[in-house]
Design goal:
By secondary structure, this protein is α/β, with parallel strands linked by helices. Helices cover 37% and strands 21% of the residues. The strands form seven sheets. Strands 4-3-5-6-7 form a five-stranded parallel β-sheet, sandwiched between helices. Strands 12-13-14-15-16 form a five-stranded mixed β-sheet, sandwiched between helices. Strands 2-1-11-10 form a four-stranded mixed β-sheet, with helices on both faces. A hairpin with a 4-residue loop joins strand 17 (402-405) and strand 18 (410-414). The termini are far apart.
């Protein structure tokens, strides 16, 4: 089958054919790494696929996966795809009522969970879900009705022995335009929508993205890669498909809180991430200098401040280059060691990367690029390369992907990566895909003269002040969250005279700074006047980089962070603005009492 239009099994098994012998992946569980070699991985995919076939899974059926990242997740995924069935991934953080909705709406006939804990919320609901005929547990389970992963492998092994050609026959019958996955978008309002992505949607995106790697593809062969973003999200899933195609060794971490130790153990070559992690790293690096003193501290902050003017498109020359080399030897090289010492680059997606963090990442000796896309576009629309490193840009569109800007500023895109539609929802599909194939992204942006795409904001999140001025809150939030003392911020101002904000300070950093100055803040920290004074200075400093009508005039400090569990964030860490506005209605009104 040609690489211009292909299936995911065709793409991935070709990668496995070229994979180096030995380790394929490693999954961390209870602090221990569990390794799987490439030969064993292939056997498990074949046997699990035939085990599912024995359970009655046929082409066109849906199989859901509710699990954290693991080698087994990939085994289940590739097995389902090889049967011509569709994978329905479910976020580990998804509440029970949404899981029930997804299983019913998708018509899933088999539901796969990782363990009893993951199954807990679904268990009381599963009897009422008529379509699900079997539930499989990846790990040992105390529930008698749950089928064991190992037992499905054994069933499949017997089917393979009785009919050794069946797996290859089914795999070869899969068509590029068949639905490969139903991904239910987390959404900031209402129940999620099932995005239908075909084999070719994702395969074309993998192949086109491989052309945009910051290094030669051969350099990735055999390298160790760390995977921490959820495979339930199409970004990490597509990235892992790229890793398989290139013959990389994938390490699935257990807990994001342990990622620093995991970096040192894995020593990854490359990382796919979201801005949130990079922002935390950037903040941590800046605060780290507070523990130093004298000349060491002066040198450290001299090097850190040097990153703020770094332009990846025009690296320093002359005296500036000499300064940068000195800073690299004394400071930047030590920061890189925190990532295991082997990290060469990162790609950031999911949200806009602030200019400050973008400059920082590239200044310390990593190639940090950012891309742009949505679940509905499989996901990548555009991505930077080392030759196109415009600050604030998401790079140029991928091969065969078209982008244009509508009259109202909305980004429209068309190409082989655009979804087939929303499952069982023709009305919503027609709302976002025009008759000539253009997908309405819902984002506002612009293209520069060289074709680089710049994202301004979400179309729905933009608001108009009562003064008539339009504000893009993501832009304002991105600017102010560049402060090492601000963890989260939500900007408000619809039909108001000025912008205000709900702010969650980075209390650990705030406490360190205040204690260094001889002051020990009192709980609740959000009410401490010195804490507020420090945050006010940070807001004032960053307001200088904004237009007058964008500046945050008032703010309220929140004691607790916005979280997924509280319903204030989506599984991809986007703010559910309607939820936050309703929850903190009184705090918001207090900022506009005089108005």
């Amino acid at each position: 089958m040609s690489e211009t239009k292909m299936t995911l099994p065709g793409l991935l098994f070709k990668g496995l054919d070229n994979h180096p012998e030995g380790l394929f992946s490693s999954t961390k569980r209870d602090g221990t790494w569990h390794e799987t070699d490439v030969k064993s991985f292939r056997e498990k995919v074949r046997n699990f696929a035939m085990g599912l076939y024995d359970l009655g899974v046929r082409p066109g059926n849906k199989v859901s996966i509710h699990s954290e990242n693991s080698t087994e997740w990939l085994v289940c995924d590739l097995a389902v795809l090889s049967l011509g069935a569709a994978n329905v991934p479910i976020y580990t953080t998804q509440p029970g009522n949404q899981i029930k909705y997804i299983l019913e709406n998708s018509d899933s006939i088999v539901h796969i969970v990782s363990n009893d804990e993951m199954f807990a919320e679904t268990k009381p609901l599963i009897k009422s879900i008529k379509t699900v005929k079997a539930v499989i547990s990846i790990r040992e389970s105390s529930h008698k009705k749950l089928k064991r992963f190992e037992d499905i492998l054994e069933r499949g092994k017997k089917v393979n022995e009785e009919n050794p050609d069946l797996f290859d026959s089914l795999r070869n019958d899969v068509e590029p335009d068949q639905v490969a996955t139903l991904i239910y978008t987390s959404g900031t309002t209402g129940m999620p929508k099932g995005v239908m992505l075909t084999h070719n949607n994702i395969a074309s995106n993998v192949l086109a993205s491989l052309e945009r790697l910051p290094f030669d593809m051969s350099e990735f062969h055999g390298q160790r890669l760390l995977s921490y973003l959820p495979l339930s999200h199409v970004f990490e899933r597509m990235i892992d498909y790229m890793y398989i195609r290139m013959g990389c060794r994938i390490y699935f971490i257990e807990n994001i809180e342990e990622i620093r130790d995991d970096f040192l153990y894995v020593e990854p070559f490359f990382l796919a991430t979201v801005p949130r992690l990079l922002e935390k790293i950037h903040t941590g690096v800046k605060v780290r200098g507070q523990e130093m003193s004298g000349l060491q501290k002066n040198i450290y902050y001299w090097a850190i401040y040097l990153t703020e003017s770094y332009d990846p498109e025009h690296p320093p020359t002359g005296l500036a280059a000499v300064k940068h080399r000195i800073a690299d030897k004394l400071v930047y090289s030590k920061i890189r060691d925190l990532f295991g010492g082997n990290l060469r680059g990162m790609v950031s997606g999911g949200a806009a990367l602030s200019p400050e963090v973008f400059r920082f990442g590239n200044a310390i000796g990593l190639i940090v690029v950012q891309g742009y896309g949505l679940t509905e576009t499989s996901p990548v629309i555009s991505v930077q390369t080392p030759k196109d490193m415009r600050v604030g840009s998401s790079g140029k569109p991928l091969r065969d992907v078209e982008v244009k800007i509508a009259d109202d500023g909305e980004i429209l895109t068309r190409g082989p990566n655009v979804m087939k539609g929303y499952y069982k929802d023709e009305e919503k599909t027609n709302e976002v895909i025009t008759s000539d194939g253009w997908f309405k992204t819902g984002d506002i942006g612009e293209l520069d003269e060289d074709g680089n795409l710049f994202i301004t904001d979400r179309k729905k999140s933009m608001f108009k002040l009562s003064t008539g001025k339009y504000v893009a809150p993501n832009h304002v939030e991105g600017e102010i969250s560049g402060s090492g003392f601000i963890d989260q911020i939500v900007v408000i101002g619809y039909q108001r005279k000025f912008c205000s904000a709900l702010i969650v300070p980075s209390y650990d950093n705030v406490k360190k700074r205040l204690k260094r100055d001889g002051y020990d803040p009192d709980e609740p920290y959000s009410k401490d006047p010195k804490v507020r004074e420090l945050i006010q200075k940070e807001v004032d400093k960053h307001n200088q980089n904004l237009s007058p009508w964008e500046t945050v005039k008032k703010f309220v400090l929140l004691e607790e962070p916005l979280t997924i569990d509280s319903g204030e964030l989506t599984p991809t860490m986007k703010v559910k603005r309607p939820v936050v506005l309703e929850k903190y209605k009184e705090e918001i009104e207090s900022m506009y009492e005089e108005e």
